[in-house]
Write a sequence for this structure.
């Protein structure tokens, strides 16, 4: 089997409701879908997730990397040689993990389809058939609305609530929202927060001292990704557990934070660390240090959700932690599950999310099929797909 063509399609995924984050208010999420074609007619699919502009990733950059990798590495290669292909991508292009992840997903999809098995069987086999997940409680107009959203999430079966501190909102407003959520879900409801690199050390120390009384499970990425020293100081001088996310895109960064005793746990996304193969290596570093890890998601469709579900289903170290955030595609649809109302996604057969549990797809490969009509309709205006072939 050989790779004969690579398609790269820029898409914008519409959102049911705008989402306010630390950087912007989003009404849609741009993304890149990849199709890898073989000479035996089997096509693998993958996607980049929303490129992280804070790390210099853009849709144009993702497509440029896929064009380079497609022409110089993929064409004519056996798609089963994932370890070698990923190693070549690492040497050929520094960074651009979302592009590498999209290719990695597509390769695993091809292998699974060829062998007639779901991807989780290629990653170690089934450890967890269903996996708990949390819900997002993004900033809303008032604390009352935030609290109602959080309470509804727990009523739907979600295991916990994650709050995002938002751009254009004062800390006092954020504090009021946190207070309202805690009151709505009770003193023991699973509740944690993400700052998305929004504070410097002194802001973080002052803010986290004020947040201690709300019994937060942890706070994610309070300072800029590069500021490992501040993470370590915060870890020492206040009581809320600290988890890193943007700071640990590569296994070497995971090791550095462990050596500095700077964090209590780590978040990651398959798209941000470069794919399923690299995720296995990333988590192995955490496991060697006894450091807990959990999975978030980077604004993709159910293609990314499915890929990450296969990883969680196979990974004993992290699959059963009760606060995974592999739910960005639910956020696109303003939903807490995929069964109570129709989900109009980029794929036809979205994975099952119900009553606080995600269920891994059982069909060969990633187990999801692209909705070709939506794929063509949702191409980013003014951009065209790229096709790489001999």
């Amino acid at each position: 089997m050989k790779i004969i063509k690579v398609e790269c399609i820029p898409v914008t995924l519409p959102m049911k409701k705008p989402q306010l984050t630390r950087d912007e208010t989003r009404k849609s999420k741009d993304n890149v879908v990849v199709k890898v074609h073989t000479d035996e007619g089997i096509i693998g699919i993958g996607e980049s997730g929303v490129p992280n502009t804070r790390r210099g990733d853009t849709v144009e950059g993702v497509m440029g990397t896929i064009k380079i990798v497609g022409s110089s590495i993929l064409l004519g290669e056996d798609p089963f040689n994932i370890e070698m292909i990923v190693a070549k991508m690492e040497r050929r292009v520094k960074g651009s993990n979302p592009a590498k992840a999209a290719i990695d997903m597509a390769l695993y999809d091809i292998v699974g389809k060829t062998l007639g098995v779901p991807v989780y069987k290629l990653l170690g086999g089934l450890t967890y058939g269903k996996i708990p997940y949390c819900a997002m409680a993004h900033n809303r107009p008032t604390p009352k609305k935030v609290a109602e959203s959080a309470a509804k999430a727990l009523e739907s079966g979600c295991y916990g609530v994650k709050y995002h501190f938002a751009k254009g909102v004062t800390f006092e407003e954020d504090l009021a929202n946190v207070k309202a959520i805690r009151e709505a879900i009770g003193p023991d409801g699973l509740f944690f927060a993400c700052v998305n690199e929004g504070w410097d050390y002194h802001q973080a120390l002052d803010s986290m001292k004020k947040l201690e009384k709300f019994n937060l499970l942890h706070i994610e990425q309070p300072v800029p990704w590069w500021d490992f020293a501040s993470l370590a100081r915060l870890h020492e001088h206040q009581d809320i557990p600290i988890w890193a996310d943007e700071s640990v895109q590569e296994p070497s960064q995971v090791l550095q934070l462990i050596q500095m005793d700077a964090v209590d746990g780590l978040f990651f996304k398959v798209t941000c660390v470069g794919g399923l193969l690299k995720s296995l290596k990333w988590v192995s570093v955490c496991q060697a240090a006894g450091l807990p890890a959990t999975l978030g998601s980077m604004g993709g469709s159910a293609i990314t959700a499915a890929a990450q579900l296969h990883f969680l289903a196979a990974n004993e170290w992290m699959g059963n932690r009760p606060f995974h955030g592999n739910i960005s595609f639910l956020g696109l649809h303003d939903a807490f599950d995929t069964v109570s109302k129709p989900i109009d996604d980029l794929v036809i057969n979205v994975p099952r999310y119900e009553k606080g549990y995600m269920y891994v797809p059982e069909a060969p490969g990633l187990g999801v099929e692209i909705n070709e009509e939506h794929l063509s309709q949702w191409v980013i205006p003014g951009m065209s797909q790229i096709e790489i072939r001999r």
Q: What stands out?
A: The chain has two domains: 3-116+369-389, 122-359. DSSP finds 13 helices and 14 strands in the chain.
